[in-house]
Amino acid sequence: MDTLYRHWLILRMIPRRGRIATTDILGRLKSEYGIETTLRTIQRDLITLEASEFPLECDSNRPAGWSWQKDAPTFEIPNMDPLAALTFRLVRDSMTRMLPRAALVALDGYFRAADERLKQS
Fold this sequence. Notes:
Elements: H1 2-13, E1 20-21, H2 22-33, H3 39-51, E2 56-58, E3 65-68, H4 82-95, H5 101-120
Antiparallel strand pairs: 1-3, 2-3
Helix pairs in contact: 4-5
């Protein structure tokens, strides 16, 4: 269960734009959650998560920087409920011209998640 919790925290730390270094993840796990681990464990965790269908990408910097792929769906636990999905659909359909482009880009993953959730309903 400790590994699952650590993976979940790591996924939450990875930014949609920009990057986070593996050393920063290690530091935040210790300072924010009291989790003691090694840099090598974090590196293995990220490689495992990337191989497990999470749309992550790594740059070639040292230390390595990680981010979500640009077209990655929004990752949330728990799943989006139908009311929230409908709200996102309405925002996209009726407010696109009123919102700044940066806001629309930031919300894109939520819009796609809402579409998927509404397909299930």
